[in-house]
Amino acid sequence: MIFRWISLLVFAVLLGGIGLHILLHLFTRSRRWTFRELIRAKIHVCTLLLLEQKLSPWGRFRKLVLLLALLSFAVLFLTGFGPLFFGCRLAGWLLMIHATFAPILAVCLAVLAFGWAGAMVFEGRSDAVLKCCFWALLVLSLPLALSMVFSMFPWFGTDGQAMLLEIHRWCALAFGSSAFLFLYLLIRRQIGMEHQNNPVE
Amino acid sequence: MNSDKQIILIVLAAAAVGTAFAAEQGGRLGDGNDANRSPYVHWIDLLDEKGVKIRPQDNPARPFSTRMTCGQCHDYETIASGRHFPGPQPQDAPGRPGQPWVLRDVRTRTQVPISPRGWKGAFPPEQVGLSGWDYLNEFGTHLPGGGYGELPADPQNPRLVTRQEISGKYEINCLACHNRDNRQDLNTAALQAARQNYRWIAAASSGLAVVNGTASALSDFFDPEYDEGITTHYQEGIFNKEGQVFFDISRNCPPERCYFCHSNQNLKLGESDIWREDEDVHLKSGLSCTDCHRNGRDHKINRGYEMSDPRLASLTCEGCHLGTSAVEPDAGRLGAPKPLHRGIPTIHFEKLACTACHTSLWPGQEIAQWRTARMHKIGLHGKHSMDLRLPKVYGPVFLKGHDGKIGPHRLFWPAYWGLLEGESVLPLPPAEVLKAAGSILAADAERVNDWRVLTEEQIAEVLRRLAPSDSAKQPVYICGGRLYRLDADALVSTDHPAAEPYAWPIAHDVRPAKQALGALGCADCHTTDSPFFFTPVPADSPIAGMERFVPMVQLQGLSRLYVWAFNFSFVFRPWMKAICLGACGLVGLVLLAYAIKTAAVLSEKAVEEPK
Fold this sequence. Notes:
The structure holds two protein chains of two kinds. Chain A is mainly alpha-helical. In chain A, 79% of the residues lie in helices and 0% in strands. Chain A is globular and about 60 Å long. Chain B is an alpha+beta fold. Chain B has a five-stranded antiparallel sheet with strand order 7-8-9-10-16. A five-stranded antiparallel sheet of chain B has the order 12-11-13-14-15. Chain B has a two-stranded antiparallel ribbon with strand order 1-6. The interface between A and B is medium-sized, with 36 and 32 residues.
């Protein structure tokens, strides 16, 4: 019960904060936001999902992995926290879907860790929060995945199993929060970079 | 003489003080408890049903009455409120369903669950037309007396009044459970009950007396003053000089006493293979039934699942092995080991009862058929033994219990003629059905121990004949999980809640932990053909050509597709573990590499700073 309320609070604060940040960003700029402009902006964000032609094969692969990771994260977040928000527990078909997508996310994270770590080294203060989120995601992914994997081995008794489940839940909360923040900052950075490359727009 | 008087006065005063002490405790002399753990040695007077002392020289000898003999020191009425002695108006909440009695009639193809305890799915005796006397005659062989056994006969029925006068009342047979004497013979008690010698049961079965005669064979005009009926002969030498008799009484009943009514026979195991069977692991560890199934003076025996009652919680599986309180540790009572349950996700403890993994037989592809002491009258020996096979009891069937947890049950499929009114079906007494059916249901099948085949034409014809004058009620026949009724003179069958199997949870025999489900891994239950979920349970019925099987998963109320898919996912579980471990290893390596790099950078900076 406590976990449910804390989760609700954390995600409400985080997503509310992100929403507020977007609004502040929109209204503090001199640009006039018409309905058409807003639709355009949304389409722009969606185009970030597409594979750019300028990408190298490795870059394309990395982006595909990122997209797959995004899909897996969305499924895992909805199946994991969805029932919790509605006062139920993760069981039945949802549990099976959750368990199916979990290893996919784990593999994607491993590939992203390998492919992105170099770009996420702290150099000065640029993108410090984004980089913090990236490393937090990597660190949290270990207890998040291992807590469930270890529970499938005959190593832990009832108390240990309960502890592993608790670790999994709290790590999932921290991982989910970090992931949302990371994605938001990544999108912002991507849009910012595009603006820099294409100042006419 | 004076000293004699003084002794008598002292004894009377002591008795008065003792009585006052016991009365203060709310009971009689024998109900007090000064916490001395050495048992009271029962040299006591035998009293007959009128409270008159029985002496060795009495001729004719009279059977002793437990109400009077044991009631000298114990509050009989309080004991009579116990769970083993239910009457027509039960005082206790029903609790979870238990094993019912079964009213069986081969001719009408009837097997109805009966219980005065108010259990869901079982009918009170009165509802199926059984009087107290009928109930006693039907089930008396495995009753411990009391309750229906002591009901006064209905004065509107003079014949029953006469029969009860001849047979006497079936008082609580305290000795059936508490007598440790090896001569205590419950087979003889059953035989006496079958003969309707209710007044003589306690004496005959105690091994203290030999009883001859059969009350049921005596005419309604039998007069005990003039006719020789039933005779009682006490064994020589049982009376001491004061005319008292020794009873080897124990507060804790030996398991052998419980077993007479609480034994089960696995028909999958041939009679010659019974020696291969193990008893409950608790008994083999030195416990007895009453160590957990305890009771106070009121004999409301702990049924072993009531976690909500703090006095009883630590006498459940969970309470005893895991404890009920974090403040005052009470786990490990009677030396119960704390289970480790390594590798068992905690969800199992929310979905499954302890008994699911630890009790009864290891689930197999073919379900076992059972006979139980009370339903099939096992335990009767010699020429009185019976070989009843109906009802066909199946188990272990893993079903959701009263608490929503899946546990092992035994079940049978009710079969009876009844009247459907609204959504409920009330059974019709077999005699009434037989009277209406006339020659359609053959009356030549008394000793057949399997169903006599019934055709759909016969069912339709009997239903036509049973049509009541009240059009709101419709005659129906229930069997094999289906309800049969006439629709525009055609026989149709449907599913109906009243046709569902009667199931009751089983808690014994408990297997050792190393033989529990899950000991060999997840595949003990999570395979696509797992007996735990997919064993077919025969929907037993007398109807010709109606062999039907219901998969256990359907009785559990779960989706077959879901359970299959979930179990199928276990095929990929090793891959999943390997993939996750591999991925975690890679992430760990990256983290380690950059941690080393960071450490190197920091170290370099630390070296640079002094410059």
